[in-house]
Design a protein that fits this description.
The protein has 145 residues and is α/β, with parallel strands linked by helices. It is built from seven helices and five strands, in the order αββααβαβαβαα.
């Protein structure tokens, strides 16, 4: 497993252990992690506290996102893809998109290189969570199904 994806997966597991949605993210620049986060919608009772948003908040104001890459254990949703596009992050590595296709088409259409790593550990953790808490998962993705 890619070392940065492993760090994102550590964040996802942290969120899962806190009773939240197991999605983690790290922002990398010049070969080092400059921000990390995990989905905290449940923990903070905040619908905007997605993993990628938390990660960007933790990175703080870095000024220029040129040369950064965002790693997320799950393909980013439209909310998080919007942040990627807004800040000009040109490369996204997703741990998986089996459980959720996300906004990969939108990001690609707007010039973001999206790499789906199709990692079995990321997919298994999300699959387990969806099985355990389907109502919470549907809330997170804005689905009433």
């Amino acid at each position: 497993m890619d070392k940065f994806l492993r760090e994102a997966l550590d964040e996802a597991r942290k969120g899962y252990c806190e009773g939240g949605i197991p999605i983690g993210s790290v922002l990398v620049k010049d070969g080092r992690v400059i921000g990390r986060g995990h989905n905290q919608r449940v923990q903070k009772d905040d619908p905007m506290a997605h993993a990628e948003i938390d990660c960007l908040r933790q990175a703080g104001r870095i000024g220029d996102y040129h040369g950064t890459a965002l790693y997320s254990t799950l393909m980013p949703c439209h909310l998080c893809a919007g942040a990627v596009i807004q800040f000009g992050i040109k490369k996204v590595f997703a741990g998986e998109s089996r459980n959720f296709a996300g906004a990969q088409d939108l990001m690609r259409r707007l010039g973001v290189e999206v790499i789906d790593l199709d990692d079995p550990e990321c997919a298994a953790l999300m699959r387990r969570f969806i099985s355990e808490k389907p109502e919470l998962w549907n809330e997170d993705i804005g689905s009433s199904a």
